[in-house]
Amino acid sequence: MENQNIIIRVATPADKIYSEIITNEMEASAKARGTGIAKRSPEYVSQKMDEGKAVIAVTEDGTWVGFCYIETWSHGGYVANSGLIVSPAFRKSGVAKGIKKRIFDLSREKYPDAKIFGLTTGLAVMKINSELGYEPVTYSELTQDEAFWAGCKSCVNYDILMSKDRKNCLCTAMLYDPKDHYKPEETKEYFEKKSKVYERLLQFKQSRFLNRLKRLQNGTSRFKSMLTHFFNF
């Protein structure tokens, strides 16, 4: 694998041959992590390719490597770079960073005035985002478009999101505001200083907190107390 040249480019309609393998890998990856993005169909991914709102990575011989796509909300005021996925055979090769950089640049080209945001449970994605100039934010700074939040219904953590009136969840929110942002060098440096803190919080969210959620009934006073203690930390 290391000797294969990987091409990262804007996806075209001809890339729809990869749509099913992309969505299958998205679903498998979400199940393996115990968390998940909104489930997408091959038809939805194909539509993004038709619209020129996706980035794909392939080898020179046509092997699929990775993918990510653009979604817009609030009449184009917010942009999300969603569905980042890399084939298991090519993970830890740096390709995810390359895809994120290309989809970020594509978003800036198509929507220069839009705020670009993302939700992630992964420390690696947080690191990549920080290198692009994203900053951790509260959920209140994200789009409030109902269509966006409806997309979370297929995530296994949807009950957590709704229990906090969409104010927080296991995912970390990050935002790039073209009109008010730090330089990428600054956000990268800040992340590096705080990476251990983020790592501990993510581990807490994904293990202890989630396990308690599965054992407790929604609405109990103990459950509400846990949410308040954690999210006001």
From TrEMBL:
GO molecular function, one term: acyltransferase activity, transferring groups other than amino-acyl groups
SUPFAM superfamilies tied to this protein: Acyl-CoA N-acyltransferases (Nat)
UniProt-listed InterPro entries: Acyl_CoA_acyltransferase, GNAT_dom
Domain N-acetyltransferase residues, every copy: 6-167
Gene3D superfamilies recorded: 3.40.630.30
Record CDD domains: NAT_SF
Protein's name according to its UniProt entry: GNAT family N-acetyltransferase
Protein source organism: Paraflavisolibacter caeni
